[in-house]
Write a structure and sequence with these properties.
This protein is mainly alpha-helical and 275 residues long. Helices cover 72% and strands 3% of the residues.
Length: 275
């Protein structure tokens, strides 16, 4: 019996590890690569995103990297070369994300998110926000016109301002960069489920309460998502794979919500009627 209980606890712990929020951005990479129906969504943005990333990062490293190394060397010594690289990559990620999300990619992220929900049997949820064509076998081809505002993550001046204000944290030796990533992830994480909240039709009050109950999970999700955004050239691909990871997390949340609703209904229907 003791061994059985131990095995059960081990399985629960392993299950909890597999569903940890910080894993979903990484799961999104695998899912995106393993499902070719998503490829056209990336190919449509491949050329502009590559050119934009190369242009921004080349200019930032060409004109700002060495001055920032010189500044950081006062505080960090030899670590200045590494921390300055993170600083420039962070600046590049912010600039590229602002330009690309504002003009190119938000609609594509919505399509990635919705297509995965359809592929995972949550088409009914997607139908709350857009017309679907269920006669099509390809989840992407099932996507019709939105029936309401279709925004994956709303543009936030507050988030951008905080990002810029947090950048100097990288001046702090050793701990500065991790603190910068976590604080930025704290703000960015909940925005990854903006589309989900809209499909559920949550009010502002309920949305805030929901975020509060998952704030730590959203922070870890946002932190890993931001780390992926710091990868040169591939950052735009990772924007789409992060949307895939966000959708996979929704699949898990909806599974839990459905099971909870089923259990509640079963309890309500049960009555103790002793003879």
């Amino acid at each position: 019996m003791a061994q059985a209980n131990k095995a059960s606890r081990t399985l629960r712990s392993f299950g909890g590890f597999l569903t940890a929020s910080w894993l979903y951005p990484l799961k999104g990479i695998y899912y995106f690569l393993a499902h070719p129906f998503l490829y056209p969504l990336f190919r449509a943005r491949l050329i502009p995103c590559t050119l934009l990333s190369v242009f921004v990062l080349t200019n930032l490293f060409l004109w700002t990297y060495l001055p920032q190394v010189a500044l950081l060397a006062i505080f960090h010594g030899p670590l200045a070369w590494v921390n300055a690289a993170f600083l420039v990559l962070g600046e590049g990620a912010a600039i590229v994300a602002i330009l690309f999300e504002a003009f190119f990619v938000d609609e594509t992220m919505v399509d990635v998110f919705d297509a995965i929900l359809i592929n995972e049997s949550l088409g009914g949820l997607v139908a709350q926000g857009r017309i679907l064509h269920p006669e099509e076998r390809d989840p992407v081809k099932q996507l019709g016109k939105p029936t309401s505002s279709a925004v994956y993550s709303p543009f936030s001046f507050r988030q951008i301002t905080e990002f810029v204000c947090f950048i100097p944290l990288n001046l702090i030796p050793v701990v500065g960069t991790p603190v910068f990533l976590i604080l930025t992830g704290y703000r960015a994480g909940p925005l990854q489920h903006w589309r989900y909240f809209k499909l559920l039709g949550l009010t502002k009050t309920v949305r805030r309460a929901t975020i509060e109950t998952r704030q730590l999970s959203y922070t870890w999700f946002g932190t890993i998502a931001l780390l992926l955004q710091l990868v040169p050239i591939l950052s735009m691909l990772f924007l789409l794979t992060t949307a895939a990871g966000s959708a996979l997390w929704v699949v898990q949340l909806e599974k839990i919500r459905t099971e909870s609703t089923t259990d509640t209904t079963a309890d309500a229907e049960y009555t103790d009627n002793p003879v």
